[in-house]
Amino acid sequence: MHKILHHINGQQTAGSSSRLFDVYDPARGVVTKQVVLADATDVDSAVTAATNAFAAWRDMSWANRQQILFKFRELLNARKPELAAIITEEHGKVLSDALGEVTRGQEVVEFALGAPHLAKGEHSEQVSTGVDVFSLRQPLGPVAIISPFNFPAMVPMWFFPIALATGNTVVLKPSEKDPSAAIWIAELLTEAGLPNGVFNVLQGDKVAVDGLLAHPSIKAVSFVGSTPIAKYVYEKATAAGKRVQSLGGAKNHMLVLPDADLDLAADAAINAGFGSAGERCMAISALVVVEPVADRLVAKIAERMIPLKTGDGRRSCDMGPLITREHRDKVASYIPMALADGAEVVIDGRSVTPDGDENGFWLGPTLIDRVPTTSHVYLDEIFGPVLSVIRVASYEEGVALINASQFGNGTAIFTNDGGAARRFQREVEVGMIGINVPIPVPVATFSFGGDKASIFGDLKAHGADGIRFYTKTKAVTQRWLDPSHGGINLGFPQND
Ligand code: NAD
Fold first, then answer.
1. Half-sphere CA count of 53, side-chain side, radius 13 A
2. Does the beta carbon of 431 sit less than 6 angstroms from any atom of ligand 1?
3. Residues 174, 305 within the same domain
4. Catalytic pick from 281, 284, 412, 453?
5. Where is the Aldehyde dehydrogenase domain (predicted)?
6. pLDDT mean by block of 10 residues, the chain; 496 residues
7. Mutational test site, ligand 1, from 104, 224, 330, 460, max ligand atoms within 8 Å of CB
8. Are both 149 and 275 inside the same structural domain?
9. In the annotation, is 317 catalytic?
């Protein structure tokens, strides 16, 4: 069986641990590979490689670092279908969606090519007589990136291009469920000329994560995953004195006002609810409809769901399988729960006929109407193709519902009323807002991140926050001697 290895100091290595984890092809329901799981010695090898590579990488000129990243961008752009195929094989999402993920990641590489401009300091001349002050941004050192299964290429790319561009070295710990994308990326960075040890991939589970969080040489941690683990990582790593940005789970609401274009809203609900089988942190899972349009909107959504094709992502399907059998079973268990809680199941994905192997981890698109807001179907992050409809009487009731959620990752409003949209963007306690846009993932020049239990830490991913996260500032106050220097003065420095 093919073994997926670590990539440490420019080499693929099995490391010292004998623990292995089965990697599935979710569309066939079979184990196709195994990934090595790091032990403490492997963690130390990866961090040591990143530590040893740091000084030379930090001291390389901006121009030379940028040339390597530029070459990486060119190779990635030319070869991204290869990476998309790897993602589909291990994650299950359809090929077009996998390619979209890579393209959104590439956007951050392109953003990071502007880092020499973005990381410039400030300069004030003559703040006091003969005195100038300027600030510098410098890299932190070796940093850890810990990523989830649902975007095995894009989420690492939210972080490492900026970390590398600003002179840090990286240890990436990808999800053990789809670990090959990270290795492909590491090989491509090597091909682009990245020196050994600057970017390392450490395969593993909790042992690897705990090792990174505790390792004294790791200066910062960027984590993305479910809320309980995000909180754990934040608490552990900050207690160990590290800089941390930790992005957690979500339950995203789409609010539809009665004046909205209902065809546009129905299309958006389908795209955002069922794309990537609902395994997106920006998926819409709660459709909040202000009456009296709910019957009409539900009918339009149900009608659009009928032709959707669930199946093997390598074929021409709309939606692939879920990541594991256990996860599929967990997501499917919300359907009887909804019935027991008094909701109406309009379309039940358990009866799907997939275009794929009978052993695949299938669940078809599911639409549940009149979901009580006390039900776990509404309250939990389901992370699957289950769209709940909640009917409300007013805009105010809808916003109050969204603001009462523990999560605050993404949300959307569908309306033709600019005043209502503006009020929504001001009142809603959510980090990323779409106005007639269902999956409002900001472009790389802005920062990605939510609010409340969807993020722990102050700085979000990419955009200006990404540059701030991966650099520390120094302020320099300088005076070059001239004939006017004033002799001894023990008082606190003041401007004159
Ligand atoms: P997860 O929390 O299970 O795993 C994320 C990472 O943490 C993986 O690398 C995993 O190996 C590691 N991990 C798992 N259990 C751990 C433990 N007990 N201790 C230490 N580390 C552990 O998440 P997932 O299932 O891979 O991904 C789906 C989740 O990620 C969803 O909740 C989704 O909303 C969230 N997500 C959030 C964003 C965002 O930007 N906010 C983006 C993508 C995914």
1. 25
2. no
3. no
4. 281
5. 16-476
6. 97 97 98 98 98 98 98 98 98 98 98 97 95 97 99 98 99 98 98 98 98 98 98 98 98 98 98 98 98 98 98 97 98 98 98 98 98 98 98 98 98 98 98 96 98 98 98 96 76 83
7. 224
8. no
9. no
